[in-house]
Amino acid sequence: MEFFDTLAQRHSIRAFSDRPVEETKVQKILEAANQAPSAGNLQAYEIYLATDRGTRRALARAAYGQEFLSSAPLVLIYCAHPARNAGRYGERGRGLYALQDATIACTYSMLAATALGLATVWIGAFDDNAVGQAIELPAGVRPVAMLPVGYAAEEPMPTERRPIEDLVHRFTTVRG
Question: Is domain 3-154 classified as CATH 3.40.109.10?
Fold first, then answer.
């Protein structure tokens, strides 16, 4: 799939078929995440894969009852690992860069999944502690986003986007 087609095809899907995601596709998604830029190339994030139904149900409960999470055959959980870049970047590395690293990796994964004909939806609303318990996160690692991945069982509805003129603010003078 051509890159701009991939962007246009990506939609948030909340209904998944029972069809499992092929391991070759999972590997390509993970390789895409591994190509994501990160602060100082320290990759201050971890990715956890949840495929068993019990864990996916626990994640759905942790996401305040977003039950569709448990219907996806795969849920990828992107976690910030602040200690990986704290030595080089201090508090900004712990508080911001690790979070950015995890979100960029998740975005790369989401676009890779779309290019592979798979459906996803970004989940950011969840109880950190409940997610941590569901996937047995070690201390110091924080969940940032969950990405259910599978084959769509619904047709996405087009969503309206803000006009570019509303998003972009151009400065035409040099400040100084």
Answer: yes
